[in-house]
Batch of 4 targets.
Target 1
Amino acid sequence: MSQQQEISALKKLVRATNFLATSQIYLKKNVLHKRALAHTDIKPRLLGHWGTCPGINFVYANINRLIVKNSRSFVYLVGPGHGFPAVQANLFMEGSLSHYYPEIIPYNEEGITDICQKFSAAYGYPSHANPEAPGQILEGGELGYSLSVAWGAVLDNPDLIAACLIGDGESETGPLAASWYANRLVDPATNGAVLPIVHINGYKISGPTRMGRMSHEELDLEFRGLGYHPIIVDDELEEDVYVQMANAMDTSYEMINDIQKRARSGEDVVKPRWPVILMRTAKGWTGTAEYNGKKLEGNCESHQVIVNKCATDKGHLEALNTWLSSYKFDELYTINDKGELIFDKEIQSLLPPKQLTCGQQHLSYGGEVVRALANPDLSKLAYGAETPRGTRGLSMYKMGEWMRDAMKLNRDQRNLRIFSPDETYSNQLQAVFEETDRAWMWPIEEWDDDMARDGRVIELLSENLLFGMMHGYTVTGRHAMFPTYESFSQVVSSMADQYCKYVYASQGVHFRKPVPACNVVLSSLLERQDHNGYSHQNPSFLGAMLEKHPKIISAYLPADGNSTLVYTERAYADRDKLNIIVAGKKDLPQWLSLDEARQQAKDGVMVWDFASDENPDVVLVGCGDYVTQEAMAALVLIRELLPRVRIRFVSVSELTSSGLGSLDFQSKPWLMDEVFTADKGVVFNYHGYPNTIKKLVFDYKGSERFRIKGYEEEGSTTTPFDMGVRNGTSRYHLVIDMAYKLFQQGVIDETQHVAITTDMLQRLVDHRNYIKANGVDPISLDNWVWTR
């Protein structure tokens, strides 16, 4: 096919999809525009964003051209938020909607009527990309996540190209701005490629964009500085913009092939300059240019629904009628004797084979391609039976050993990565470097440690970039971990929320199967952020995520290394989940054997018999590793002071939005009674904000017996033990609270209560004086040893 024929076909395809996008926004009847529009053809409520649709259609058509020409796998990620009418128009044209929804959206007028009537309607189709739509791997309009997700999707998919359309408004967001740096991390020898296309239509919802007011020279300098090869396409240049774009796509494809070919032949490709297309077309291109003297096309006024009173205003209706007529849609199709639409042969020449269409790209459906991990043998990694209970050890280091062995076992599958926005060493995961390295495509100096082109640890100081990459990696069927400092995890709270929405919505879609869990590891916990101070003390990500659906979110708070291993193994076996594992990186007592840890993980809650008495007078609970150490120390203290008092120790290691582990206190309240007794006082020491636990037990009839301790937003640069003191989670505070519960229940008298409280308060004063004088905690506290 000559270029002239290709350009003719492109123009027809874009005409068709622009027509269908417009029809979805406006029409409920007469969707093929067989007659002049009437007010009764118009929807009663007009929703959608027209301004970005023509650009989406233009790029989609050009991607199809490359697919047909080269038989190469592409996914198409659309960053501009509410341009779904354009996406859906193309999914209809290529046959993907009819493939997945043959009864609902047949390839005929009835199918077009369906997508028009249901677009942005109650119980219909959303105004943005969504999991219900074929081929989509992220929700649209996610505040700049598109490019990072694209980079994640191509990792370990060497034949895949992710074409990512980025709005110039979207490009102003922090997540998108950081995503350009992924070119430093992706090895062309073993991974696919991302083709970013920045759509510079000049305007956001009510004003200009930064890039829209930049010159070609300024754009060129910016992207060259970021390490890319910019290619500018501009509809105001003399050359036909369709010819410009076709040439730009061909050049980009050749550059991608050249980079990959050189890298795969053994050349060390340093700083590969991936292409980026900077595409200037008018916002609302091909729509109503102006109305009543107001400029619409090429202005922010075209951002959403223009001429939006078509159901009642004659002038608006005439403008829409002229607009739809300009596409001459009736010239682009015929209808066969079965009522099916048969599109123009030139259009058909740009529609890829079904298996190569963007909507049916199999890598978009991670549940179809996922392979379960080969798991390490926990018995070889765990603290064994020869390890005395209470021996100090490192939970995060054990997790690192698990990851090392898992990467070795799954080396040939290439389906496991770490996305680490903070230092992998700092989080005590360095054992992985015995098996792999950190990926780095820029110069590597001889003194750099653990860096290589094909490393499986992706490390860069941007939580947004790396969480987005993990999103792209997991929804395309691979396994990943995102370890980060607990205090910085809030940076990606919105991204995590969108990931959960994507997964939850996917569960109701018949052509999507469960995908591997997204595993967030929170380390550098607030209790030990003593040197960084108040700014690094923030457990709020936990509380935010525990507002979400219990089938999607699980928070695992293992008390020791063996429990951490068990929950790490579980997290990677999970599907359609976002798991949070909270584990400290400093040495702490090891409480459970591997079998005991496995037993506790079944329910997420367990009475520790080795630390408990029968028929208890009070219940002490630990949820989190540092706070469990303090709770166990409090247990030892109160037994020394009140040897006749009987205590039950309960460890809680899993939280969901519906409760503590598997304790369903709403339908089976006796389960809570069995664990926490029916009438005894409960002192609950929690790692995060107390309100999180208060909300979880609010509906339990015995909740008034609970005294919940946790982070009270008190902190500073101080000692580790003093962090617990400042927030009331120290062993001394727990003893005070247990003594009060015992006094309330009549187990001890007032004299005993006052004496114990006075003793603990004096110990707190003594501790403060000690750290002021010495700058560190006493050895007896810092290296506390469990005794029973």
Target 2
Amino acid sequence: MSKKASKTIPETLKNASRFSVLQRDIVISAILSISAVGAAFYWIQNFEEPRALSQRITTVTANSADHQRVIIREVIAQLSARITQQTDNTELSKALNAKDLAARSEFEQALQRAFPEAVDSKIIIIGPQGIADERSETARLRNNIEIDMLRKSLNSDGIVIEAYSHKKDWFISFVAKVDKHGAIIVSFSTKYFEKMLKSLAGNTVTNELIQTYKTRRDVVIRPANRDYPESMQSRALSVPGWTLQVYPQPQTVQHLRSDSTLLWLVCMFCIAAISASHAVFFVRGFRMPKPAVPAPKKISPEESAQTEIIDLEKALAKKLAANRGNVAVHRHNFPAPDSSPPLAEIQQGVKRKSKPLAVNCFRAYDIRGIADTELDDSSCEAIGRAVASEALSRAQSKILLGRDGRLSSPRIHQAVVKGLLNSGVDVIDLGLLATPMLHYACQYFNIGNAIMITGSHNPSHYNGMKISLDFQSLSAQDIQGLRQRIESQDFEQGQGGLTNDSIEQRYIDRICGDVVIAQTLKVVIDAGNGATAHIAPALFEELGCEVIPLFCETDGNFPNHPPDPTVFENLAALRAAVAENHADIGIAFDGDGDRVAVVTARGKCPQADQLMMVLAQDMVVRNPGAEILFDVKCSRLLPELIIEHGGQPTMWKCGHSYMKRKMSETGALLGGEFSGHIFFKERWYGFDDGMYTAARLLEILTLAGRSMDDSLNTQRSMLSSPEIIIPVDDDRKFAIVETFAENQDFAEVTLTEIDGLRADFRHGWGLIRASNTGPAITLRFEADSEAALGRIQNDFKDLLARIDPKLADSL
């Protein structure tokens, strides 16, 4: 063996030994690293996460307790101030001094009107020796506790407040003296305060009100449960001896509990990364030769310019031709224009060639058109038969029916009833009412099928139908399915029955049993001569408001202003009435009552997304993590506020049908559209209701002791355009928006294409979409400066001009 060979073998063995040691070290390193990751995961899962969960529960409960303590203090102060105002009446003092029982009776009736939320309001005359010597007056008191409170009030300059039990019911009484001649006693059921606390707590916590007197400790209001007592938060209230104890609800704890799936995934990823990285060093790799990269092909400036030129007018023409051939592929979720053949008029189940039904009446959310030409009697009867047949195919045999106050509604109503009955369904006719009242009737009667005959906010010569089946509002394909059923005359035959009923008082009682308005407000209500004219004033009077009615006579001509309160000009009369009457707030409803607008005491007219900020903040503070829906037209400040206060924002399509379905799918507690449709799922049913929304808004304001102006002043603001509406034929609008979306080249932008195209830039956003309710495209812009707003508008205008120069002239 040569010397060279003898040297090579030991060197090889030496290298092999070194490699073996390296392998061993790599294995040991991998084991230690994986063990460290496992130990960290175990520590987080079993020690850190429970501690963090307990801290989160305590924080949420403490925040809720602090919030409720402030609100309760405000409510008690407001009630005390209202009672003090009654005691300052010099005429009452004179009547009590003279022991004028007749005058006392009149003042007592006025007191009861001033406190409609109280179960009892009375005025007690004090004799020369005090209350004890007035046997007749003593008999008017419930028990010795009220007598004791009366004596305390005579020795006090303030108001005596105390809770007590009487005949197994709990009451809270406020007692205040009137000079030295008498006293006012206002008593509330604890259910009034219990409902208020429940409203403040939402689904997050449950409350217990404790009253301590000397050694006695009474539970005035009991909590739903006392789970998680270790997280209970106690707060002293402004009434001596009163304590609020707040317990987290089980669903709150479940919501705050972290999902360990992500932690598991991170752990497994770390282990996989450690294993892979160590494996690379464990096994020797081979370097692969890099493939040759061909030099980029040089393109002449002329060729580049030619490539970038896009003839958008030709692109639009091509798309329209494709749509007419019914072969368009809609990559952006824009519904294709209808291309079906005209529908035959249906009379008594026999096909006849006659005037075709207007295809454009079958829209994305409902059926809507010009009443006298597009919705004639035979067409409406056919629609009734189609709805009835579809209901029967779903094993539904009853349909609720309502109508608004338009001049054409009785005629359409009669034709629809005929179609429904001739198809074999039973009809419950609820007469003239607002759309949300019909939705409530579905819940009350547990019948999920309804037809509302209404033109909503459209001018007086329009009308239409909003249709629900199986508690779901029909939209898009469902409505087109009705049209196709009419076209093929796929109708059931039979004879249904007709009955009449009313839902008005039940609707009022349901809202009054849910909403607490903590102080008397002067409210101007503009019903716009629509369907809320006969119900809204009565509702808000029963809620304890002083109501000033404006245009609260149903008149299908809408003589005072169009029935659309989202148009600023239509609120002129309401603004004037609020100012003239020094009202706290003005409320306006659209033609069928499912939309709401507001005028503040200072004459401001906030947009619906600003109202949503007030409602959403209250919702997510009481329900941490709650999902809130809003449409693509809403301000970007709304989702920022929802996130800031612990909620989950979700942007969705415009349209009441789409929003209601999304509310049902997601379990969102609140939803809203820029058009004024607002949907409550918490404590309500998830449909859009202008009257209920207004009531909840007043509840939030009065419980917080703030005006609408105060709430708006706390909101951040951006510059925004109104909703810009450009008339476009129905058969062109979707193609224009889709062409715009396919050819935009905006830089540094986030695109949302669930409904048209919304482009969110760093300093603002712009939206273009096809209207689903009329022949138009709509645009809206928002930015944090005039320069940014103008820049975004110009970008949209330039692209529209390349598609169709006539469209850009409207911007």
Target 3
Amino acid sequence: MRAAQFERITEGPPAVDPGRAGDIARAAFGVRPVEVTRLPGETDANFRIATDDGPAYVLKVSGDRDRGRVTIQNALLAHIRRQDPGLPVPRPVRTAGGLDLVEQDLDGRPVLARLLSWLPGEPLAAIRDRSDELYADIGATAGRLAAAMAGAPPGDRPEPHYWDLRDAEAALDQCVPFVTDSGLGAGLGRARELLAERPVRWAGLPTAFVHHDLNALNILVGGPPRRTCGIVDFGDALHTARVADLAVLLAALTRIEPRPLRVAGVLAAAYHRAAPLTEDEVDALYPLLVARVATVAATTARLAEQGGHGDPRHRVPDTARQLARLVDLPPDFATATLRAACGFDPYPAGARARAWIAANPRAFHPVVAGRVTPVDLSAASELFDEVDPRRPDDLWVAVQAGVVAGSGPAVTRYAEPWFPRSARRATGAGEAATVSLGVALFGGGRVHAPLAGVVEATEGGVVLRHEVEPGVRFWTRFSGVRSDLPVGSPVEPGQPVGHLAGPDLRSGPGLVSGDDRYSATRHSRGAPPGAPSAQLTVVRPAHCAVPTHVRPSELEVWQALVPDSSALLGVSSGIRAWRPALPEAMAGRQAHLPRTHPTYFADPIDMVRARDCFFYDEQGHAYLDALNNVTLVGHGHPRLVRAAARQLARLNTNSRFVYGVLTEYAARLTATLPEGLDVVYFLNSGSEANDLALRMARYVTGREDIAVIEHAYHGYTSLVSDVSPARYKRYGKPGFTHPTPAPDRYRGEFGYDDPDSGARYATRAAEVFAAMGETGRPPAAFIYESLLAGGGQVVLPPGYLAEAQRAARAHGALTIADEVQVGFGRLGDAFWGFQTHGADIRPDFVTMGKAMGNGFPVAAMVTTREISERFDATGRFFSTYGGNPVACAVGLELLDVLEEEGLQANARRVGQYLRDRLWRLAEHHPLIGDVRGQGFYSGVELVADRETKLPAPAETLLVCERLKDEGVLVYPTGPDWNVLKLKPPLTFTEEHADALVDALDLVLRRNW
């Protein structure tokens, strides 16, 4: 029957032209077509029918011999709508006489016509950039469909067809002779071997009606955000093993994925939540996936060779590459991954062996005789300088999934350029394999058997088989070990089994010293790939290609196959398998920190290192920092690190003692400010600086009330929170605080198109000042940011600040320039933000912090001698840690770095380059409503509708989460929480800007 079925798919659908299709729709179903468009189809002639009264339909014309098949399809669609009305499947349209299937004459032969409701949406095949959320939604929808179809009454069942997975091997037998490509031939050969070794036991699998053709043409997607909005074409529906439907879905949707198993896990997990699978079904899933892909690839080759026409979906070259990726996977690992995704034990066959290994650590004889001392890989930076070369047995270094042991500290790092992770996936680079699996060995000497066993292999290393109890079997694998023992010979515990000559500890590949190279590297939790290693495996190595290094995301599954191998070093070694630190860290935060203490991102990152514009997490992933305006000159700048360490070693005390670095720093700092601002109060945070400025303003003016800009944020102390609309909106505005309208030209009263917007907004501020005086509460101070941070990265319009400050002074208010977020050259055009609004602007107070110490806690408030002396009447003001020698040394060095590395000019140039690229991106993504900023302080406002400017906070948070997954850190801000705040270090380059914009483009293309 296979040959006849193949002829059926090459025969094609009935020959119906669009004009005849329109006539059938009009005569049989009473619709009035205005446009008829041909749609693809393998056995049916399909047409989209647009009508003059609005609704659209799909007309399907089938041969008369398909009467049973199409009758069953209509019955299934009706059943699905009864079982789950929310499922987006077509609805059969009935004729005036109540029929859903009518016979028509086509050039003297009968054909069958059906009319189905049209489902709007875009075929998934048209979308190359697909998010995991979309995949999960598709998997869940497929699961719902399976659950709805499972209850269909048996009745008449469709006949098996060519694509029936139960006959996949027969299809391969008929197609393989037509394969001429050697690479595809090899892949098909491995697929057939796999299916022979792991046959699907059909009799034990639950059966049901299934769609059996959930491919990227039959799944429709809408949005934003992109989600499943339709499942069409039930032409291949069968009554078969239920899991075959999921296998077809995985085969279709992983076709373009360099890592098909990762996406298959996302789909299977979501499907399983909607339609729980049995363990037998999950175990059959990988062989069925390979069978489907092999059948499609072989059929593609046969159609090409025989010149067949068929459906275009079966002539996709991607299937050959997809097959090669699938058959290259270790089958045990592939099945374990799918089992883990569905919540099952990844490898139940090894459960007893894993339990024995965990319960009997003292039963193992150490495989090496040298010393092993645990070292924290993330903190270590030196090499093995103290190793005694005269004692080779002490040269052992062991790396157990991220923990290094040896005679001294060590670190392994890999030079690897960063770029968005989706781009890595698109190019096939994928996630780096940075985690040692097992115990990596460095040095030279003999390797010993850990337990009694039998030599099972010696090619490329040594494999020992151990059977510690009846039925409890596992293996020890030593890669890179040379052995003269014959295969099959027994070994005793402690018996030498081979000799290892490891890499030189001081110059081996992957080992580097010093921190200066770290900015260009990405650290690893293990030894360099290819280093000799020792592993315990509960899966036979001859049947599973166990790697020495794996991707962090795959580690948990691999550990079910390769359990904690630290037992091979002996219980006294101190080496244990790596475990993620994040869960424990989060539990500690929940136990000891306030419930409201925030963390970035729904899935937080456990950071262990940072350098220049990058963070590095515990798994070695790099994150481009476009968020953290504290580290002004880049994370871990070597000059600042040395300055802090040098001063800390010399002197650190409080500023009541006299030391030259304080006065030198104060002089350098005031030299950057307008004349007259020459008295410095050193503090520890920007909040303290703003608090002191407000306190002094109140004392000097004898007034209590403060004018602020709406949506502003100035800090966390009681007084400063009370003048921060971004804070007090949660508990109520104090009576002494008076907000002025935010000069927001995107959302405010006066827009970008108004050349006088600055003066108009300043007039609104002056009206507030006047109203304060009229009510007997004149302002003591007007505090402002030179660019509104909490307000949504709002750039003050030209002329606003000069006019608003002039109006404040006219009403007797002192002015406070809050430069905590935007000072020290960040805005590019001037050193201080207020200076970008005109050289004649001179506030009474300038507050600074955050970037002042590049992460070291240091802040200051600068005012005039006159104001300072008037405040002296309140008594002496002193901060214990403010202006300590280390803080001043770091601050001084930062000023030198800013000047010598030209970072202010870099902020101006690259900041504008970044915004220009973002505006070009906005041309393609309507979610971007506005791009604004100065220097390295930018905002991207996201809106659900550009016309109404409806804020899109949920979408903004999702964008930030997905950017984090791509390796880029940004976060929402603004009163509506819908603005991406971009505040990178001033060392940010055009290449970094390109990476950020490219990653944002990927996220927006995938999700919207």
Target 4
Amino acid sequence: MNNTNKKPKSGRPEDEEAKLRQRIRDILDGKFVTLLMASVTLWALFGDDIRLLSTDKSADDYFFASYVIMLFLFILDIFFNSLVVDEYKYSFFFWLDVIAAISLIPDIPWMFDYITTIFGGLPYTANVTVNTTGQSQSAQSIAKKVLKSFRLIRLVRIVKLYKYVTKRDTEEQEQRLKEAQKLAKTARQAAMNREMDPTRLGKILSDTTTRRVIIVVLLMVIFIPIMQSTESDNAPTYGLQQLFWMGRSACTSSDQFECSDPNKIHWETNFGWYELVYRYTLCTEETDGDSAQYPLLWMYLPDYFENGEIHEITSIKKSDLSGIAWNQSENCSGKSVGSDCHLRDVEMLLAVYTPDECTDGDVAGCKNLQAYARFNIKSQSENEALMNVFTTIFVGIILAVAAVAFTADTQTILIVPITKMVLIIKSLADDPLKKIEKEEKTEDSDIRKEETTYVLEETVAKISSLLQLSFGEDGADILSKNMMSGEGELNLMRPGNKVSIVIQIINVENFTTISECLQEESPIFINKLSNIIHACCKEWGGLVSKNIQGSFLLVWRLPEVTDKDTDEDDLTNPAMQRTDIANRSLVSAIKTLAEIRRASDIQAYKVHPRIISRFGPTYSTDITIGIHIGWSIEGVIGSESKIDPAYLSPHISVGYNLVEARKEYGSTVLMSEDFYGYLSVKAKTCCRRIDTVYVNYLPNTFGLYSFDITEKELPVPETHQLGKLIKLQKLDSVNVESFQHKGVDYMFTLDSDIVGMQQDIPQHFFDSFRHAYVDYISGQWEEAKEFLEKALSYLHEDGPALSIKKFIEEKGKPAEDWPKSREL
């Protein structure tokens, strides 16, 4: 049946929802939306002040329309972020955005006046209403002050800008955390990565500090102006009060307040009234002769020339009656200001005076007994808008500087040390034996020593260092591989890894007897030897695996050789690398012998009383070195009570057999044929085949080689460091760097220790021994004895020659089934 026309099954609903959420989030985090919201934020901060500062009333509707659009965009931003952004809803930034959106409403009269009316309030207006009194004007002034303080909450949009600016860093931190969680092999590791991620800890603490700084600064900005007493210009109100009573002094109507006395005296003359009203038009001038700071637009008060009746005063003549000193504004006059007035309500000040006795509505003759004056305060409105711009910028700078300063201090004092500790703990959780890198000592680190975090950091580092020292570099590597290959936990039932290694066994001769003699000084003695052995091993690329009862196991890991490897004659070729590693192992052995021989603190044991009493005056600290190459299984051995990293292989036993063979052959450095085969030509010429042997746990026989040494005193330069090259004096000018591309083969030509140890052995000895060895292996023992005697005449105490001679003499003649080898 053909299924090609079948529709693919749709994904799970939760997958489709997740994809949709991600698409919406990508749009929100995109460059266009980010730039748009950043621009809208800046407009929300400065738009209304720009309106009052640089435009007139005719542009207001366009500004109000832009505020409506802003409010709509803010609501959309809050809505979609609540849908798709985890942990946003009801978070700090959520309420931040809600408050910022609400703070836009007072700037939109179309909405705010309607809301104010619904709740029984009075929108701010320059018109005269039935409720317009001095008290209502005072209440409106307080409301205006509170409203202006409330508008400062819009400064929280600066934090939105901060959020946009730091969004990229936040996204990168989250991405790194997600990648770390993907790499984690278990849920436990993922949770640990999430909870212990240092960038996450730093971000949380920085955000918390920033939020609190913002809240404190905004509360100060909002409430301090409300709590402060401000000086205001009361000249319009006091002048209006004076004009009211001067004008009312001419009233004669008996049915109005304070006009019932027909014999009352007029308080003013005609000239005085003109001068008084004229001076009132200039009541806002700063000094006499200047123009009024806030020009008078309209007056409605008792007219002295009209028997104290209240009506508009449209113009004022000059005191000399030569002309008009003031005219009311045609479009901005009247109890109700027309739409033709070029000024906004906030750009006009309405001064109101009502006699104190008339504040009670039951007093006869007080109906509509109020005086009004309207002033142009556009310059004050512009100054306030300009100061608002400066205030917004200043507070924004304060917020930024405070947030950065607090965050920087927190970063330096707390986050950086905690981050270091978290990184150390996290790395130790992944790999308990990972080496901790210590920072270089500086003045800051000396100051930090008094901090608790520094003490904790140092404690964790010390614990880690103790673990690493306990297991050793090689053991730490084995344990790390064991733990990192699974769930980050030690699994004793996990198979080991098969590796190829160079095995070097260093054995301290008579160590048990020496320990009995030295007793409590034994650790000092063996540690002095360990210092030399470990230093030489590390200098030439080896790893110290184990120290047991005066016996040291050192290893060199060999790279695996494949068919794809090149035949290049440099260290990029794995075969060349194996040769170089074998050379390094032999160099390490020879340098260890040389360093022990010339170490004064070790040679001082020759005269130790307890040593002399046991060994006599001829004692010297001797070591035996056996070197072999073979495979081994590296793994962790033990139980939940105790573990040890170890190598398991019969080839390890070969190394121990080689050091035991000193009793038979008397040679200090013994090597197997497997190891000899990897050496370079120069290294091989320094070695001598001394026998063919077998062990009962390996199927094949193998050659036995030695590196011959003499008792010659070895010179050492003053600046010499343990294990390093000491050039022959005649070759001191040779540049070693020109040879290093081929490894350490140069050591067998240039080094004073390697060359000097064999310098006094005559060549005739080697020739005679070689002939003796060939005859010995081929079964011609009589001829072999003759060459052995000849070799011994050149080197009387040669151990291998004496061993073969002894073996021939004991056996007499070779058996018919002579295997051409003997047991090691």
